[in-house]
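Study this fold:
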Amino acid sequence: MSALSKKITTTLVGISVTAAIAGCADTDTGSASSPAPSNSASAASSGTAAARGPYDDGEYTVDGEYGTRGSSIGVSLTLEDDKITAVGITPHATDDTSLEFQRRFADAVPALVVGRDIDDVRLDRVAGNSGTPQGFNDALEKIKAEASR
């Protein structure tokens, strides 16, 4: 085998190993567990400056904002002993595509958050939607601030 062939073979092996390692890497550093294919909720990272319980029991309704075009969703939830016992989502989208995304999000959220401590909830991607969860997370932060007074 010539010196050039050895260099090419070594380079290709190195690239293959690097690609294999990169493909196995865990890129979801903020989750407590691996995300589901279409829905994921993760624990809030402890490094954030977000409010932490205890929170006042009650029903809270706020709008969560996301994106650069002033998108928002309405979030209503009930807290008991810092746990979310009920949640409702009100879509605010005006175009059909965004409204469909928000409706699918609204249908999926209760199964992800009801029964969980509000401080442990942070949604990443739900029902194929990555924007609306940001609005939900914004609403959660507003609710936690209101409930901790």
